[in-house]
């Protein structure tokens, strides 16, 4: 799998790991990839992009409650649940965790869905360490007080069970996606911006590859099978025409699993995985996950007519007719939501 040849970044990374993957066992592939994975070499998956060149901490974090990230130089407003003047911590992570403790129950809405922390000693002065826990009127459209170099605050969102679910509409049905703002805050911020658009011309799925004989229906790899092609994914782009896309910094990169929604490099190309891909290691920013009951829609798209192509030496399957897509608000809350 790779970026489309028209992408100027497409030739920056060789496809050696993918060529090797079809001939060696998983253990051998893992060993080889551990050697070639560095800022100047290929990522461990069939994409060509900038993922390996962007550094971040905690790349193994995932959307399972282990992350606690925010956006620096951003101050969110909202109703205060805890007043920062009386509630202080040494780090933004501790502030985030405090918000999560008010959003960990299975009953009712979260008492806290956003946090604001002052962590720059020089800029914050006596406000250093202040942790404001807040409740937004609309968590999908949080109230921003300020942003930019003059802002000394770091802010983040927390989505509780049944919250932070958006719809990815296609003609084949709507994929409901649980977003991970605590793991990929900048990525989620961009998706929330897309919710405000009336249309998303140019946003589409253009590549579709099923699980083939390599993965079972639950996304588990079949012993001794190749790791692709096909690579068990649908790939698309979410850059609306007339709206320039700003590269997303690499954020939390957990193991890609069935349903994972992640950037190719730093966007705007993205993919939905139809299988578990531990062989890709921690190379891709995962900013959401498709609800399990909607994976049938992704599988349906993966079975649409395609034509073969070769991108930078990688055999891919390109949709004969791209599938337009659009992010929309979703009011659906289901029992068992993440």
From TrEMBL:
TM region(s), chain numbering: 12-33
InterPro entries registered for this protein in UniProt: Cyclophilin-like_dom_sf, Cyclophilin-type_PPIase_dom
Determine if Repressor is one of this entry's keywords. no
- Domain of life where this protein originates: Eukaryota
GO terms (molecular function) for this protein are: peptidyl-prolyl cis-trans isomerase activity
The protein's UniProt keywords, in alphabetical order, are: Membrane, Transmembrane, Transmembrane helix
Where do the PPIase cyclophilin-type domain residues begin and end? 166-316
The record's SUPFAM superfamilies line, in alphabetical order, gives: Cyclophilin-like (SSF50891)
- Output the PANTHER family linked to this UniProt entry: EXPRESSED PROTEIN
- Descriptive protein name: PPIase cyclophilin-type domain-containing protein
């Amino acid at each position: 799998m790779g970026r489309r040849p028209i992408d100027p970044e497409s030739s920056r990374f060789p496809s050696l790991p993918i060529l090797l993957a079809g001939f060696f066992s998983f253990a051998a592939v893992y060993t080889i990839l551990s050697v070639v994975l560095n800022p100047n070499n290929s990522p461990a998956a069939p994409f060509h992009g900038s993922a390996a060149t962007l550094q971040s901490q905690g790349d193994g974090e995932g959307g399972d409650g282990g992350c606690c990230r925010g956006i620096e130089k951003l101050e969110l407003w909202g109703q205060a649940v805890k007043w920062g003047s009386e509630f202080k911590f040494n780090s933004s992570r501790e502030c985030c965790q405090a918000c999560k403790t008010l959003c960990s129950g299975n009953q009712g809405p979260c008492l806290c869905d956003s946090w604001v922390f002052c962590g720059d000693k020089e800029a914050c002065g006596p406000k250093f360490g202040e942790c404001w826990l807040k409740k937004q009127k609309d968590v999908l459209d949080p109230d921003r007080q300020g942003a930019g170099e003059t802002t000394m605050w770091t802010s983040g969102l927390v989505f509780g069970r049944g919250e932070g679910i958006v719809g990815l509409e296609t003609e084949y049905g709507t994929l409901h996606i649980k977003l991970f703002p605590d793991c990929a805050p900048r990525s989620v911020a961009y998706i929330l911006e897309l919710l405000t658009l009336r249309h998303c011309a140019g946003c589409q799925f253009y590549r579709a590859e099923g699980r083939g004989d390599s993965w079972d229906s639950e996304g588990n790899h079949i012993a001794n099978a190749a790791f692709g092609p096909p690579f068990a994914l649908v790939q698309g782009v979410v850059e609306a025409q007339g709206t320039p896309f700003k590269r997303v910094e690499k954020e939390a990169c957990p193991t890609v699993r069935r349903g994972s929604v992640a950037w190719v490099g730093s966007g705007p190309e993205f993919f939905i995985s139809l299988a578990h891909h531990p062989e890709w290691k921690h190379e891709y920013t995962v900013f959401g996950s498709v609800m399990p009951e909607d994976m049938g829609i992704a599988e349906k798209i993966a079975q649409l007519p395609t034509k073969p192509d070769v991108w930078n030496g990688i055999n891919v399957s390109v949709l004969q007719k791209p599938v337009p897509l659009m992010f929309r608000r979703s009011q659906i809350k289901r029992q068992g939501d993440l």
